[in-house]
From TrEMBL:
Residues 7-412 form the Major facilitator superfamily (MFS) profile domain. Keywords: Membrane, Transmembrane, Transmembrane helix, Transport. It is a multi-pass membrane protein. It is found in: Endomembrane system. It holds the Pfam family ATG22. The lineage of its organism: Bacteria, Pseudomonadati, Chlorobiota, Chlorobiia, Chlorobiales. The chain crosses the membrane at residues 7-33, 45-67, 79-96, 102-127, 139-158, 178-196, 236-256, 268-289, 298-315, 321-339, 359-382, 388-405. This is MFS transporter family protein. It comes from the Bacteria. InterPro entries: Atg22-like (IPR024671), ATG22/LtaA_families (IPR050495), MFS_dom (IPR020846), MFS_trans_sf (IPR036259). Coiled coil: none annotated.
Length: 425
């Protein structure tokens, strides 16, 4: 029963933090920032892009160091709590933003997004501790499914507040929706901090100058000896490319639907809910598939599906066809993310869980979130076509697929375990 409570609390955190992702990164706040805070001025796009890029860059820089500090101090939960609290408080404070407060809003958003993205490093590192090796894929899939369920829940909760549109005339309801998102995140994240315990906790402060220096040395040690994990390094590089494309699709899906296919706000909400529903199904179904055939084969399958998604989106000339494409994208989004987390967990030595997930979620994951949207934007502006920009993403998926075919998961896992044992000795 205790183990089940741990698993359920871990899953609830995925359910909780997606409220921030949906409301503040993907859907409502980006439109609020452009239309309300910046008054619809074109400079709003540049400012928003800068805010997202800065937050991702900061997380990419600090995640490996703080991940190593977490492993050294044995206080992973304390780090996760700190990042979660920062995200919740900054999100709540964004309810005070309004027209002409772009600088304040950007600072608060950067802090909120850093808290959200940085916390994932420590959250994902728990995966290998709360389940057996043979069930990692299934539990990872359940986690993403709970996240998508959380996205549906928060959207249903605030939908009445969004009926007036993301405009100045509806500013009171929009601000209230940000407070609800912060409360939702805090409420459903709480069980994890009550149920999970840090193992191997060491005496001394959670973070100190000496600890930071040791953490930096530990990270340098990992980078220096990355050749000891050749298949892990190949996977991380593959993940960089295909995750780059996936995050870009997520970032521009609503802009593409609205600008190219002229979706209304109501249609965008229905489209989002449809994508989340299929993402839940994909996460759960491919979780079982991952445990059955392994994460590598599952990732290869999902990347082939992504090829079909991009081609279908380019050829879409109606809202109905784009809805169908969105359903396929949702299924492949949930499955590829769940299988990738499973692959990382299986390849990572236990002694370096948080540190390696710092590279996975931080350095590689966040850096790809900077590069992908930039390429999409440049191609779209240069070619004058969002469909041409979509086509450019096929190159990222191709690079990821080719690199994945060179990953030998079994040999890498053995090498990682041996290296981890050598390090600890």
């Amino acid at each position: 029963m205790t183990q089940r409570r741990k698993v359920f609390a871990w899953l609830l955190f995925d359910y909780a933090n997606t409220s921030f992702s949906v409301m503040m990164v993907t859907f409502v706040f980006p439109l609020y920032f452009k239309n309300v805070i910046c008054g619809g001025d074109p400079s709003g796009d540049a400012l928003w892009g800068a805010g997202v890029s800065i937050s991702m860059l900061l997380v990419a820089v600090v995640s490996p160091v703080l991940g190593a500090a977490s492993d050294l101090s044995g206080r992973r939960k304390r780090f996760l709590f700190s990042f979660t609290l920062m995200s919740v408080l900054a999100t709540a404070l964004l309810s005070f933003s309004g027209p002409g407060t772009a600088a304040l809003a950007l600072v608060l958003f950067v802090l909120a997004n850093m808290g959200f993205e940085g916390g994932l490093v420590f959250y994902d590192a728990y995966l290998k501790e709360i389940t057996s090796e043979k069930s990692i894929g299934r539990l990872s899939g359940y986690g993403f499914a709970m996240g998508y369920l959380g996205a549906l829940s928060i959207l249903l909760l605030v939908r009445p507040l969004l009926e007036g549109g993301v405009t100045v005339s509806n500013i009171g309801n929009l601000k209230l929706s940000f407070l609800i998102a912060a409360a939702f995140f805090a409420l459903f994240a709480t069980p994890l901090f009550l149920v999970l315990r840090d193992s191997g906790r060491r005496a001394g402060p959670m973070l100190s100058l000496e600890g930071i220096v040791r953490s930096i040395r530990e990270v340098r040690h990992t980078v220096t000896h990355i050749r000891s994990f050749p298949d892990l390094s190949r996977f991380l590089l593959a993940y960089f490319f295909y995750n780059d494309a996936i995050l870009t699709v997520i970032a521009f899906a609503f802009i593409y639907a609205q600008n190219t296919l002229h979706f209304t706000t109501g249609e965008l909400i229905v489209f989002f809910m449809t994508v989340q529903t299929t993402a839940i199904a994909g996460s759960v179904a491919f979780g079982f598939v991952t445990d059955r055939i392994g994460p590598k084969r599952t990732i290869v399958i999902t990347l082939i599906i992504w090829f079909l998604v991009i081609l279908a989106a380019i050829l879409s000339d109606s809202k109905e066809m784009f809805f169908a494409t969105g359903m396929l994208a949702g299924m492949s989004m949930g499955s590829s993310q769940a299988a990738s987390r499973s692959m990382m967990a299986r390849l990572t030595p236990r002694a370096h869980l948080a540190e390696f997930f710092g590279f996975y979620d931080g350095t590689f994951g966040k850096a790809s979130a900077i590069a992908g949207p930039l390429v999409f934007g440049l191609v779209s502006a240069g070619a004058g076509s969002q469909k041409a920009a979509l086509a450019s993403l096929l190159l990222f998926f191709m690079a990821g697929l080719l690199l994945m075919t060179r990953v030998r998961s079994e040999s890498s896992l053995a090498g990682a375990s041996a290296a981890g044992a050598s390090d600890s000795g």
